[in-house]
Write a structure and sequence with these properties.
Layout lengths: L2 H15 L5 E5 L5 E5 L4 E3 L2 H9 L6 E4 L21 H5 L5 E5 H4 L7 H7 L4 E4 L6 H16 L2 H21 L6 E9 L2 E5 L4 H9 L2 E2 L6 E3 L2 H7 L3 E5 H6 L2 H5 L9 H4 L3 E4 L10 H16 L2
Parallel strand pairs: 3-4, 3-5, 5-6, 7-9, 7-11, 11-12
Antiparallel strand pairs: 1-2, 7-8, 8-10
Length: 298
């Protein structure tokens, strides 16, 4: 057999035995497409990005995250606070891909980060913001990540599991929506009411409540404003309730004791990550819906 023919046949056999690495061109939320081929060193910014990669079974590729990437429990090195991410720290991890979210990159101290990383030759995929879009937004980010890793069937299965939990949420909502506010507290004297934008609002609506904050963003807690709104229920982060001294402490906060929520001790806590809408949103909503259904009637 001619030598060149033998070489061609051998190469064809090798390719059949060892398929080419999956390659994809993934378009980010910033309009920039990123060419990826089996990423092995990924810096995953924002805890929801870490969670989604875990759910796709690709957690072994993550070599760095920020301070929010703590779930599931892991020992992934942190590059720092999500609102002031250091380009040098990320580059030092020698990533073949950085995956972050539009809302984190938009914070004042991160506005040049993507440009710095790309200028250094680092590929950056910008996912849609995590504070809008609800569960559909989670699915969009999940699908983009499935393209990165070439695992569309895994993403499809996860989306179906979200829908199954969502159906359970709808079946457990209270018939009459309680009036709700979300209170973000650092201490008894430092608390903010969240408005009708963001993950907290998505959780309230999904669980069957009515967010009665008359504004979109956030406003400092005042007794006058809270008493005027008179919520039936108040939601806080787990760490927020701890920071004010538990149930006894929150009832001493401005105006709380004068509201229906305070009088009936309808204070509910949720996971500290709820500001960023992630794959556990249906689970958090189901827990809250069940509590409200029990407390506010069936």
């Amino acid at each position: 057999m001619h030598k060149s023919l033998k070489t061609t046949l051998a190469l064809s056999l090798a390719l059949s035995l060892f398929p080419a690495a999956s390659a994809a061109q993934v378009k980010g939320a910033d309009g920039v497409s990123v060419n990826v081929t089996n990423p092995k060193r990924v810096v995953a910014l924002n805890g929801t990005t870490v969670e989604l990669i875990y759910r796709l079974g690709k957690q072994g590729t993550i070599v760095g995250t920020d301070v929010t990437g703590t779930y599931p429990a892991n020992k992934i090195p942190s590059v720092g606070h999500w609102a002031q991410l250091p380009a040098e720290g990320i580059i030092s991890l020698k990533p073949d891909l950085v995956i972050g979210t539009a809302d984190n990159f938009a914070t004042p101290k991160n506005t040049t980060l993507v440009q710095q990383l790309r200028a250094a030759g680092v590929k950056v995929l910008v996912l849609p913001a995590t504070d809008m879009g609800g569960l559909d937004g989670v699915k969009t980010r999940l699908n983009l990540l499935s393209q990165v890793y070439g695992v569309p069937s895994a993403a499809s299965g996860l989306s179906k599991s979200f829908d199954t939990t969502l159906a359970a949420v709808k079946a457990n909502r209270p018939k009459v929506a309680p009036k709700v506010i979300f209170l973000y507290a650092h201490s008894p004297s430092d608390a903010t009411i969240y408005g009708t934008e963001g993950g907290a609002n998505e959780l309230i609506e999904l669980a069957g409540g009515k967010n009665i904050a008359p504004f979109k963003d956030t406003k400092a807690l005042t007794a006058e404003a809270l008493v005027a709104m008179n919520p039936d229920a108040i939601i806080m982060l787990n760490r927020g309730l701890d920071s004010v001294g538990g149930m006894e402490g929150v009832l001493k906060m401005p105006g709380v004791a004068q509201t229906n929520a305070g009088k009936n001790k309808r204070i509910y806590t949720v996971d500290n990550s709820i500001r960023w809408i992630g794959p556990r949103l249906p689970e958090f909503a189901l827990q809250l819906a069940r509590e409200w259904k029990k407390d506010f009637g069936r």
